[in-house]
Queue: 2 jobs
Job 1
Amino acid sequence: MSDALEVLDQVGQWKADGKGVAVATVIVTWGSSPRPVGSQLGVDDAGNMVGSVSGGCIEGAVVKEALDAIKDGKPRLLDFGVSDEQAWDVGLACGGKVQVFVEKVN
Amino acid sequence: MKAETLAALQDARVKRRAVTLATRLSDAAEALVYRDDAKGELASDAAIVAAAQRAMDIGKSETVDIGGAKIFLNVYVPPPRLIIVGAVHIAQSLAPMAAMLEFDVTVVDPRGAWATTQRFPGVKVIQDWADEAFQAMGLDVSTAVVTLTHDPKLDDPALEAALKSDVFYIGALGSRRTHAKRKERLAEVGITEEMFARVHGPVGLNIGAKSPAEIAVSILGQIIEVRARRLEALSAPKVAAA
């Protein structure tokens, strides 16, 4: 929980600095996912990150989607897991599955 | 997420106020749900508010299906807090151990010679009477209170204030005999036997603890147990329904 609050502080700071910002949140997990539901990753329009939604395996893909969300303002629901070819590509090798919600901070 | 929502979450954290952020995944519409209040676009949906408050009670974030819409409930609860009344020897073991367990620890004692930051490095120390300190801090459901002074002048007002709040754990150091006398004294200020039953005394799990560090372990073991059982009990109806 303290992690999540640290993310909110940084996101608030970016926002106050006039940057475009998005927040990604783990909303569902199956199996041995590295981060619990509610874990958050904040992303600014330069691709800077705070927090985490995995052990580092899917952050790259999430940041890409977050940058798109900052541009078009639309929320996104992302699935990562063993059943997902792309997830293997980005390397959620722990065998878990996670669903991540990405939204722009307006 | 709206910028106002972000600000409200930060404000709730500073005030140690529990809040659930409900987000409809299809369009990112939101509600901020508190124990006694709800704000935002989804706040008029009673089912969402009820689910958000339940999630808050259990302390667990989750995605739920309400009326065909997927709603994510993100729970932001203040970290558990341990208030130790009495800056005594046992407190010097209890405070760092509790901090290791990620409790937000505060030591309260009106006696200046005891309540020093030197004796309690890295922990909040308040040199004041417990009831006054409590009033300033605000006791809540994620707080545990332990009295260690052995001195009725210091312990009793702390217990009285804790018993009139909804803290999740109250423990008082002292033998069975001391504890029985304590019950009699508190009865005089309106603490009924039923209310007094919330006090764990003699404090701690019965593990034969002798040294201050062992007593600290027994107290923390009991606090962990009480907290876990409470969360289990709150989660139970959902398991039964599923």
Note: Chain B has two domains: 3-76, 81-229.
Job 2
Amino acid sequence: MRPLLLALLFVTALARADEVQVAVAANFTAPARQLALDFEKETGHKAVLAFGATGKFYAQIRNGAPFEVLLAADDETPAKLEKEGAAINGTRFTYAVGRLALWSAKAGYVDDKGEVLRRNEFRHLALANPRLAPYGAAAVEALTALKLLDANRPNFVQAENIAQAHQFVASGNAELGFVALSQVMKDGRLGEGSAWVVPASLHQTIRQDAVLLAKGRGRAAAEAWLSFLKGERARAVIRGYGYEI
Amino acid sequence: MSVAARFALAWPGFTLDVDLDLPGRGVTALFGQSGCGKTTLLRCMAGLERGSGRLAVNGETWQDEASFMPIHRRALGYVFQDARLFAHLDVRRNLDYGRRRAFRRAASADSSRRDAIIDLLGLGPLLERMPERLSGGEQQRVAIARALLTAPRLLLMDEPLASLDHARKQEFLPWLERLREELDIPLIYVSHAPDEVARLADHIVVMDAGRAVAQGPLAETLARIDLPIRLGEDAGAVFAARVAERDAEWHLARVEFAGGELWVRDNGTPVGREVRVRILARDVSIANSRHDDVSILNLLPATVEADAAEDHPSQVLVQLRVGETLLLGRLTRRSAQRLDLAPGRQVWVQIKAVALVG
Amino acid sequence: MFSPSDLAAIWLTLKLATVTTLLLLLIGTPIAWRLARTRSWWKGPLAAVVAMPLVLPPTVLGFYLLLLMGPNGPVGRFTEWIGIGLLPFSFGGLVVASVVYSLPFVVQPLQNAFEAIGERPLEAAATLRASPLDAFFSVAVPLARPGFLTATILGFAHTVGEFGIVLMIGGNIPDKTRVVSVQIYDHVEAMDYAAAHGLAAGMVAFAFLVLLALYLLNSRGRKS
């Protein structure tokens, strides 16, 4: 299935010279869609977006996937690709800084200081697998800093990624969970339920870096997409979705 | 004592509609071409098909408009065309399957009967075998014993010989004849083979297109020339006789029947024993006077009772009375006219072949 | 060779597969029996529902199970009402999901076995005074033995190999829902290839042995 999809993408890329193939970290799905619309209006170029886990994109790019730009969920993967020659040196930059939120689908469940963690009156606390996902690792760091890790660990339900962590909470199966703020923000405000935006000081900065990939070398649309992301118009959109920049 | 069976059932392209009153003892053959509904009727009696109607077996109602006794509550034995032994059980356990269930409370009470039935059908040496290691005839013997061991009040057999080749059939028929002599319950036997019917049946129901078109005692019914179905080469008379004398020099036996006597090949049947004699219509020829200068051994005086057209326009079937016994003879229409055969006419019948059928 | 958490995952996986297989046989047998013997209009729809896990991605099943068994889903409301709480992130939830997911692997071999037996031996049993229930246990079940063997092995093995649904509704909790396949996934994603190899090679060997056993059983069944 996936090779077929990639082949299809590849064929369209050849046929339409004014398109850019972008691999987008799943947590950045909503802002990337909005940005692609604005980008097309401003430049006439079209950004073709593929969403997924950064680790998977890494493996695909290393194996010849036709992506021209990567918007990663972390800063390590772009650096690694650059070192390995799969990305162009010097094109790496931070396009967004992720914020962690403790969120519940129920209104009023999570207070604005995170005291709910101290009371520990829930059965399930969802988070992305800290071994695999930056937001999961950040959640564990925050709990450690609050000295609440041991009290809450028995209630952990671990998701494969941040999108699944959101799903666990959204479906009500977990009363609350650590998600990306961008997942619960809509038009600069909390969409539904209740949330505590975890102070950035409690965990390492979740830097999301973009990089121009080898396949995008010398492609006008790819370069235009990267400079568009650095522009103030794009940054306003990104902030609106709960990222800092 | 009787088996009263009235069944109606309609399927696309087939309708069964019968109302029978069968003898409460002896062998009744349900006879007819394949597709005539004889197996369906048998399955209705067992409850395997749900026909509407009524079935009473020697006074016990198994089914009527208001009630339907499930198959497993009917005291019947059923022998299928394909023996249907249980492949996962050896012969002994196959035999025990129905017996244990029929005699849940008195399992030990009938062990002598069990041994007798195993003996009757010669199953002693087969008890430890698995069904797959039995010949077709052996399988059918086990199937019959298995059915008998439930102490049925009605025994139903659906062409138990149909799946056997000729040699196996000959080997198997004597077992069935022994069984017939021992049996004190009604046996309803489906067959399309006239020789089996001639050998085994006491009573016959001739079926065609889902209806019973003729029924009655075997001899009487087979000698009818107005049967709605044609038996062709198998048309002939069957009647009872008794061995009166055995001639050691010529290896012939003289049998007496109601109306005369016949010389037949001596097959070892002792003097005084009742036998069944079958004379096919094609083996009977007719003369206006007695001819002693022919090779034929059996010459009998007879009266022409009736005649009927055969399938082929050249042939006629003639019913002849020899004493109290009816015979059938087949000859060409041309000969019939030359001999001026008409009911009441006195003739001589020459019988080319006589078969003792048990 | 295996870490304590690997061993816990192996033990949990075997426990899950055993419980699931027993339940599958209990639930799958009557379904297969009905499917094999009915000619009613609902045979097609029922067969299609049972076979759906064969074609649906596990993530679809997992997603719907998560919603159905959640606090707002009908199953979730029911389990809360009878006092056993919510099923996701629990061993019971994995059992329910595994039963749904592996159902076709148990029902289909059983259905094939029952269909191969056909009406004939059962009719014979009925004429030998066996009630339908009696005939089922004394004739149909023993004759369908190869089908039961295949169903048991496939149900067990398929549950051991299940991943997508467990990932969706399991929550990766040690001793409760972290089964071997999830453990391997974690090792691989974390690039701990040595640990992944140990478990993955074990799974490969297990799958080979199971399929070999199945093949041998089948060929022996044909011969006898």
Note: Chain C has a mean pLDDT of 89.
